[in-house]
Amino acid sequence: MNLFLLILGLTVLVLSGDWLVRCASSLAVRASIPPVIVGLTIVSIGTSAPEVIASVRAALEGNPGIAIGNVIGSNIANLALILGVAALVQPIVVTRSILRADWPVLMVASLLFAGFAWDGQLENWEGGILCTGTVAMLIMLYYRTRQSQNEDTSLEEEMGIEPPLDKPLIWLFGGIIVASIGLYYGSEWFIEGARELALQAGVSDHIIGLTVVAFGTSVPELVASVAAVLKRESDLVLGNLIGSNIFNIFLAVGVSSSIIDLPVDSLAISQDFWWMLAIAALVFPMMLHRRLVHRWKGVVLAGIYCAYIALVVSNV
Question: CB of 228 within 8 A of CB of 237?
């Protein structure tokens, strides 16, 4: 029953997040809001909805281990497992902007996250600083998309904006309401299932957050990444994964710890943050080498993820 509730909640959470983005984007386009604004706000932030909602919900319900473990585990899964699997399907092209802008921002965000958590507590003011990182990231994306317009690059492709839904306004408003309800109940079922699973298995909520919850909330990135490489759009994969990791920290951790102080599990400080930082650092020379994430690099990354999960399980 706990596993069923977990899967049901995750399914509702992911589908609701995707539907909210599509309806809100379509409504914004119908209202003549520039596509760049739609991409920077609704699409960029909305695609991180599962991680953000799950972490905030977990924090508010007294499960900080799930909230923090979810973000650490998701970020490790994105750059090790998902990037590794995507590279196995097809080598990933590395753009100059990834090396010059996205990766440095990811490292700054990751170091801030780890640094704030090092004393065993994420406090409200630290969460506020992380939240301001979201604004800085959106500003950076804005200037990049302006440049891409000047270079005649498709803005829709750059920001991942899907064509607007050809539906009446009342239908779009209704879709937003239904999706919002889905996010609320999906997150409730998902976190409840994860919490009960942790109790039943006799492990900490931090371990469940690192593994089950983190993998679950990373499923959309996995599906999107594999779909992108199959469509011969591998250059979009790295940007989406690194961007997701950045917003996970700035939004999911930032919002959660802004609302309530979050105690940090000692295992996260002694082990998990180091893995998160090391994997993020390791990806850079892999990207720099011939500006391709080759298949053999994908094997290495996927192997690292398996080793990490084995270590986590051994600590149970």
Answer: yes
Judged against a pLDDT cut of 90, whether residue 121 lies above it is answered with yes
pTM of this prediction? 0.84
CATH architecture, domain defined by 2-314: Up-down Bundle (1.20)
Q: Can you name the residues that pair with 93 across neighbouring β-strands?
A: 292
| 117-122: long-range contacts, CB 8 A cutoff, minimum separation 24 | 117/68, 117/264, 117/268, 117/269, 117/273, 118/269, 120/263, 120/264, 120/266, 120/269, 121/261, 121/262, 121/263, 121/264, 122/68, 122/253, 122/256, 122/257, 122/261, 122/262, 122/264
Domain ranges of the chain: 2-314
Q: Higher-confidence residue: 137 or 253?
A: 253
The pLDDT tens digits for 25-35 are 787 777 776 65
